[in-house]
């Protein structure tokens, strides 16, 4: 399978570069994750309290909220794999892919996640799971067909850094509040409309509108907090992967290639995948110019390439034509 092995002639140089480099803690990322979770926690408490007052049923609200949060936290990896038609593959099926993951995990001194493959032409990769011991690294067959060995290595290192930094779990938990807000709106709306007694209660319309307004506000705030954290964590993962492999130009090449190929895929074929943009290596969409970047889960391609170019110069990496640096 092309794109899944490293050329042996580069291995000695690679080992010299990375043996002293692991996924070191990113303090700025840790602070941002902590602040985001704190603010979302306050928002979550206020949201639940408002629902209890409005719906006059704290048991129902708490049970639903706790159940959904637990399900999303414990089963996020299975949900993501199912949605993207991914399946866990063994060493015998994809030995070269497993070999790259084994080597990177050994260098980074981290547990090896389950390795999965999604039979999709869209070239992408993602990592999910509640912690490094319960994580899944998934790549699409479209990505495996398109990338050269050093490019694949950079992408896998990027995804492994998400697991090592534990920002996958943070994004999973953080995303829950927006999901809950949306579900609450639907639940209250249908219970009031089809509940029979709700139509006779003069306060029903007021309660419905208030709950929907609160839920919409909560969703909007959580949306922008999560997007801001997501954009930064992608830059942090690019930086960590470049430092681990010592080849930022290869990661830049993969970014350029995959972004260009995804932009050629019809939008209708990307709609299902776009729901999981926050977890992907590169978003399942085209460029996001201007103010639309505020709504994006990823920084712009230019911003990511600029950072990799700076790292390449810092490492003194030779820069082939068309790559970072």
UniProtKB/TrEMBL annotation:
The chain crosses the membrane at residues 29-52, 58-75, 168-189, 204-226. The active site is at residue 159. It comes from the Bacteria. Belongs to the peptidase M48B family. This is Protease HtpX homolog. Zn(2+) binds at residues 158, 162, 234. InterPro entries: HtpX_protease, Pept_M48_protease_HtpX, Peptidase_M48. PANTHER family: PROTEASE HTPX, PROTEASE HTPX HOMOLOG. Its EC number is 3.4.24.-. The keyword Metal-binding applies. It is found in: Cell membrane. Keywords: Cell membrane, Hydrolase, Membrane, Metal-binding, Metalloprotease, Protease, Transmembrane, Transmembrane helix, Zinc. Residues 94-309 form the Peptidase M48 domain. Its cofactor is Zn(2+). It is a multi-pass membrane protein. GO terms for biological process: proteolysis. Binds 1 zinc ion per subunit. One of its GO terms (cellular component) is plasma membrane. One of its GO terms (molecular function) is metalloendopeptidase activity. The gene is htpX1.
């Amino acid at each position: 399978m092309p794109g899944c092995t490293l050329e042996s002639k580069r291995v000695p140089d690679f080992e010299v570069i990375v043996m002293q480099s692991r996924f070191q803690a990113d303090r700025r990322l840790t602070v941002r994750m902590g602040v985001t979770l704190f603010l979302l926690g306050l928002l979550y408490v206020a949201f639940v309290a408002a629902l209890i007052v409005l719906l006059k049923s704290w048991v129902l609200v708490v049970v639903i909220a706790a159940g959904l949060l637990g399900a999303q936290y414990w089963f996020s990896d299975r949900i993501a794999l199912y949605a993207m038609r991914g399946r866990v593959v063994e060493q015998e099926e994809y030995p070269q892919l497993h070999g790259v993951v084994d080597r990177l995990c050994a260098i980074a001194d981290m547990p090896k996640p389950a390795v999965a493959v999604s039979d999709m032409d869209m070239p992408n990769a993602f990592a999910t799971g509640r912690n490094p011991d319960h994580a899944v690294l998934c790549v699409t067959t479209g990505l495996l067909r398109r990338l050269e060995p050093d490019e694949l290595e950079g992408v896998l290192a990027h995804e492994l850094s998400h697991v090592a930094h534990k920002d996958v779990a943070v994004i999973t938990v953080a995303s829950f509040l927006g999901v809950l807000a949306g579900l609450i709106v639907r639940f209250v709306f249908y219970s009031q409309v089809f509940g029979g007694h709700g139509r006779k209660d003069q306060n029903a319309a007021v309660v419905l509108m208030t709950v929907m307004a609160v839920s919409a506000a909560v969703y909007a705030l959580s949306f922008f907090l999560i997007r801001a954290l997501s954009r930064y964590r992608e830059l942090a993962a690019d930086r960590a992967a470049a430092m681990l492999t010592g080849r930022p130009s290869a990661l830049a090449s993969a970014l350029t290639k995959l972004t260009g190929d995804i932009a050629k895929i019809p939008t209708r074929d990307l709609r299902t995948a776009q729901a999981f943009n926050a977890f992907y290596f590169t978003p399942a969409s085209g460029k996001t110019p201007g103010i639309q970047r505020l709504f994006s889960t990823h920084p712009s391609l230019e911003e990511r390439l600029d950072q990799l170019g700076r790292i390449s110069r810092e490492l003194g990496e030779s820069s082939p034509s068309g790559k970072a640096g």
